[in-house]
Amino acid sequence: MDNPLHQSLLDGELAGSRYTLRTPRGLLAGIVGMHQGARAGSSLEFKEHRDYEPGDDLRHIDWNAYARSDHLVVKLFHEEVTPHLDVILDGSRSMALPGTTKAEAALGLAGFFVAAASNAGFSHRVWLAHDGCAQLQGNAGRPDTWELPSFDYRGNPADAFQRRPPLLRPRGVRLLISDLLWPGDPLPIVGPCAERATAFIVVQLLAAADVQPPERGNLRLVDTETDQRWELLVDDGAIERYRDAMECHQQLWHAACRQAGAFLTSAIAEDVLRDWRLDELVRAEFLQVM
Questions:
Q1: Which of 89, 93, 133, 200 could form a disulfide with 166 if both were Cys (CB 3.0 to 4.6 A apart)?
Q2: Are 148 and 59 contained in the same domain?
Q3: In the chain, where does DSSP find H-type helix?
Q4: What's the chain's Rg over C-alpha atoms?
Q5: Cα–Cα distance between 75 and 167 in angstroms, integer?
Q6: How far apart are CA 43 and CA 80, in angstroms?
Q7: DSSP class of residue 54?
Q8: pLDDT tens, 142-177?
Q9: What is the DSSP letter of 147?
Q10: Same domain, 173 and 68
């Protein structure tokens, strides 16, 4: 019988082959040869002038403009963006929550984005945030050549980044696929992933069970990463507190992504595996239907 992870990876690759990965217009300043970003860089296409500041490269001073105005200005040029995608996959145990398909959907989404990136001429790397961040074996090739990951890490991506961060390609596109369900400040991950990136996309992948509070009654909760257990009476107050805590947590991530210039979208694993529709990313122009 086929491994469900392998099958979802193939399904995701097939679904992604109908899309092209893009960088939204708001992040692009034009395309000449390689993809280009909106920041100033060192390519040869002129972008604009700005006033000279101490420490600027003297080679970028526009001496013709100085001769006309007796005012020092420097030329800014479009930054060339490496057509590369780095996918960071959350390998923690919460992504393999029993009774859910989060692991299958997460791996399938990795295959989806790699296929869309290949259609756009991007190279790619897939990183597993596990005991440190390491590349999946075979990850630079087609998804059907990848070694299937183990979603059994007892920490979270923030711990993995602290142990060994991924070596992300400068000026590429970065993608984090995770349920984001760990406590703490998101910026230790969001900041480094957004730094020197053309774009950083965060896909919060939740199971339906993560979104819908449990049924009323006595419940035993088990932390999937620590095996710690709690006995809990689920009543109306507990359900309301759960919803409030989830909303506050998501607002924290939205704020961190806005601060870093990242794009955050949410998806339900069961829905992803059913139709592979990522409409919000299409509307935001990160994906284009071929």
A1: 133
A2: no
A3: 4-16, 63-69, 102-119, 157-163, 187-194, 208-211, 236-260, 269-275, 279-283
A4: 22
A5: 31
A6: 6
A7: T
A8: 998 999 999 999 999 999 999 999 999 988 999 999
A9: P
A10: no
The first and second tokens of residue 172, run together, are: 């590429």
Supply 183's token pair.
């406590």
Closest CA to 32 of 45, 42, 46: 45
DSSP character for 101? -
Determine the Cα–Cα distance for residues 50 and 152; give it in Å rounded to an integer.
51
Q: Which two tokens mark 219? A: 């419940």
Q: What is the pTM of this model?
A: 0.78
Dihedral over alpha carbons 263, 266, 270, 276 (to 10 degrees): -30
> Angle, to 10 degrees, between the axis of helix 102-119 and the axis of helix 4-16?
30
A 10 A CB-CB count for 25 gives 10
Q: What pLDDT, on a 0 to 100 scale, did the predictor assign at position 228?
A: 60
pLDDT of amino acid 63: 84
**Is the four-CA dihedral 223, 225, 228, 229 of positive or negative sign?**
positive
Cα–Cα distance measured from residue 170 to residue 183, given in angstroms and rounded to the nearest whole number: 28
Range of the domain at 63: 35-81
Token reading at 199: 């774009």
Is the four-CA dihedral 154, 105, 284, 31 of positive or negative sign? Answer: positive
Do 56 and 117 meet the contact criterion of CB atoms below 8 Å apart?
A: no
The number of folded domains in the chain is 2
